[in-house]
Automatic annotation (TrEMBL):
It catalyses: 7-phospho-2-dehydro-3-deoxy-D-arabino-heptonate = 3-dehydroquinate + phosphate. NAD(+) binds at G108, V109, V110, G111, D112, T132, T133, K145, K154. GO terms for cellular component: cytoplasm. Keywords: Amino-acid biosynthesis, Aromatic amino acid biosynthesis, Cobalt, Cytoplasm, Lyase, Metal-binding, NAD, Nucleotide-binding, Zinc. This is 3-dehydroquinate synthase. Zn(2+) binds at E187, H250, H268. PANTHER family: 3-DEHYDROQUINATE SYNTHASE, 3-DEHYDROQUINATE SYNTHASE, CHLOROPLASTIC. It is found in: Cytoplasm. Belongs to the sugar phosphate cyclases superfamily. Dehydroquinate synthase family.
């Protein structure tokens, strides 16, 4: 199958996202043109290392490139000061210099952490993303948002630091647990909902076969999502405007993630899917879009076997007021006003600056009532 290439156009900091099968095995050849000397430092996590690090090591060895690797524990708790300090100090011990390249090999946690470590190491070294989850391939590896969590909140410390190359190997997706694949799909469907109705139509038809494992369909879906993100990022790198559309479903999602303690009860992509359904419900109640739109979103998520409603989240949830208060702590709140991404229809999202809290509370109250 051929390789798809999407360029993120950012002037002198432009880079390619290459999407295809067998890319880990080709990583040495793909990355070699970026290297001033034949040495790379890879940071990954234990899970990805066990599955794929030997293949990556072989790919570098074939090109005569020396690879050193650091493995961190898997999971969101690694995206914090401890593993950040460990990564930076390890890179210094490996004598990684200004002109060297660091490789982030893993999902969103590894990508965000290693991207941030690269941003501050010697005031900035280049890094390559090799994302190994669907969520990382379509969202976090592209666009240069890097950072870590602190006790005060998620992603509050970080930097915009664009990668020099992204290699999205479609084959690694077949090693994901079905739940993780579907959680990543929450971010894929978001792109259709926010800005491409034809892509959403395509997903309604093709996503079930894609979830079952069709590599060509996966490659197309990842490519289309990345094309959309690349376009948005190149027009609005630092989220002054349009980039906020990528947060469709995220205000609800962040409140639900906090309410469930960032636990296994709700994965980020699952929260995004539920959040998208609620954002369309809210849009419909504001008279912005037709009743068919939220029904269609929910029907598709259900057909995919995904979490769609608050009733699909196990265990207790706080009441509507408490959930609304959690939204008030979201980064998207400006001057105490609730900022949402709403939609005039499928593929027609926009930023709404001053959404009435009472209406949001009513949407939450109704969604919670269905649980009982
Ligand atoms: N994940 C949202 C963004 O990159 O802006």
């Amino acid at each position: 199958m051929s390789l798809n290439v999407v360029n993120v156009d950012l002037g002198s900091r432009s880079y390619d996202v290459r999407i295809g099968q067998g890319l880990i095995a080709q990583a040495g050849r793909q990355i070699a043109p970026l290297l001033h000397r034949k040495k790379v430092a890879v940071i990954t996590d234990d899970t990805v290392a066990a599955r794929h690090l030997m293949d990556l090591a072989k790919a570098f060895e074939t090109e005569g490139i020396t690879m050193t690797a650091l493995t961190i524990p898997p999971g969101e708790s690694s995206k914090a000061w401890e593993q950040f300090a460990r990564s930076v100090e390890w890179l210094l011990e490996q004598k990684i210099e200004r002109r060297d390249v660091v490789v982030a090999f893993g999902g969103g946690v590894v990508g965000d952490l290693v991207g941030f470590a690269s941003a501050v190491l010697r005031r900035g070294v280049r890094f390559v993303q090799i994302p190994t989850t669907l969520l990382a391939q379509v969202d976090s590896s592209v666009g240069g948002k890097t950072g870590i969590n602190t006790p005060q909140g998620k992603n509050l410390v970080g930097a915009f630091h664009q990668p020099s190359l992204v290699l999205a190997d479609i084959d690694v997706l077949s090693t994901l647990a079905p739940r993780d694949f579907l959680a990543g799909y929450g971010e894929v469907v978001k792109y259709g909902l926010l800005g491409d109705a034809a892509f959403y139509d395509w997903l309604e038809v093709n996503a079930p076969a894609m979830a079952r494992g069709d590599a060509a369909l996966r490659q197309y879906a990842v490519t289309r999502a990345v094309e959309m993100k690349a376009g948005i990022v190149s027009r609005d790198e630092t989220e002054e405007g349009e980039r906020a559309l990528l947060n469709l479903g995220h205000t609800f999602c962040h409140a639900l993630e906090k309410a469930t303690g960032y636990s296994d009860r709700l994965l980020h992509g699952e929260g995004v899917a539920i959040g998208c359904a609620l954002a369309f419900e809210l849009s419909q109640r504001l008279g912005l879009c037709a009743q068919e739109a939220p029904s269609r979103v929910r029907a598709h998520l259900k057909a995919m076997g995904m979490k769609t409603d608050l009733a699909d989240i196990s265990g207790d949830l706080p009441g509507p007021d408490a959930l609304l208060a959690l939204m008030g702590q979201d980064k998207k709140v400006i001057d105490g006003k609730l900022r949402f991404i709403l939609a005039r229809g499928i593929g027609e999202a926009f930023v709404a600056e001053d959404v009435p809290p009472d209406l949001v509370r009513a949407v939450l109250a109704d969604a919670l009532a269905v649980r009982r």
